[in-house]
Structures are given as C-alpha cells and as structure tokens.
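Duplicate of #3305? Posting structure anyway:
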C-alpha cells in the first residue's frame, strides 16, 4: 500500500486526500448529524405536544375546581345516601347469596364506594350467571365489573363489583 501511495504523483495524492476527507465528512453527516437532527426535531415535537397537554390539563383543573363548590352545594347528601344505599344493598346481596346457596363460594364480600365487591372461589359459572340475572331482574342490581378465571369443569374464580342499575 505504501509503495502504491509513493508511486502516485503529488497531484493524485492531493486528490486522494481531498476525496477521503469529503467521503469522511459525508459519512459523518449521514450517520451522526442527520440522526441527531431528526431526534432533536422529534423531541421538540414531543415537548410542544406535552406543553399543549399541560395547558389543557391546567385549564381543565381550574374549571373542575370552579365547578366543585357548585356540585357540593347542589348535592350535599349524595355521599351519605350513597353509603346507606350500599349498606342496604350489601344486606340484600348477603341474603340473596344464602337463598341461592352460593355463600359458601364467597371468599370476600365488602362494601365499595358505590356498591359491593364480591370475590368467589370455585363457583359454577352457570350458577353465577343465573344469580346475576336474578339480581338484575328482581333487585335492579347489575355487575359493573366482572373478572373470571376458568378453573375447568365449569368452575371459575370471579371478582365482581355490583351497583344499583
């Protein structure tokens, strides 16, 4: 390689050096500058979107704080009647579970914010579905959240939240 270089004329060597520098600059531009510039543009866009989101959230927060006193003065007894309603619903559900002989499958039963949460273990899915149907039709109580894990042979573990329909 050294011999080849030495055999080049001064003019050819200068052209090779300038060409190498140009190629290196093009590679630096292509593989360093362009990706960094693109990443910077992407980050600027994210910052702008996040600033817009923050502005919207702050405006919404102010609006909610402005409306909160109005809501509490218009419905002062909502929380007490809601918890009383949940307590009576809890009693109704306990008696219904006993009536349909499902109480033995209940692992947890407690009052929630707007209703009742129940956890069943090894309950027949058909029995659970029938019981929920009866609750809905007779007592106007419906499941607003239901999560069930199949165990096989028609049995499930289930967690559900019930509320007045």
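Output from current build:
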């Amino acid at each position: 390689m050294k011999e080849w270089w030495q055999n080049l004329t001064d003019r050819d060597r200068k052209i090779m050096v300038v060409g190498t520098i140009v190629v290196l600059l093009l590679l630096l531009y292509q593989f360093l500058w362009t990706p960094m510039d693109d990443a910077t543009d992407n980050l600027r866009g994210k910052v702008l979107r996040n600033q817009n989101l923050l502005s919207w959230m702050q405006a919404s927060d102010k609006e909610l704080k402005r409306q909160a006193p109005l809501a509490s003065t218009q419905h002062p007894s909502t929380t007490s009647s809601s918890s009383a309603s949940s307590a009576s619903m809890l009693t109704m559900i306990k008696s219904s579970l006993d009536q349909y002989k499902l109480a033995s499958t209940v692992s947890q039963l407690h009052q929630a914010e707007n209703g009742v949460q129940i956890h069943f273990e090894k309950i027949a899915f058909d029995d659970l579905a029938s019981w929920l149907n009866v609750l809905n039709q007779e007592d106007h109580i419906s499941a607003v959240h239901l999560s069930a894990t199949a165990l096989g042979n028609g049995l499930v573990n289930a967690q559900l939240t019930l509320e007045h329909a």
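Confirmed duplicate; merging threads. The mean pLDDT is 85. Strands lie at 106-111, 116-124, 141-152, 155-164.
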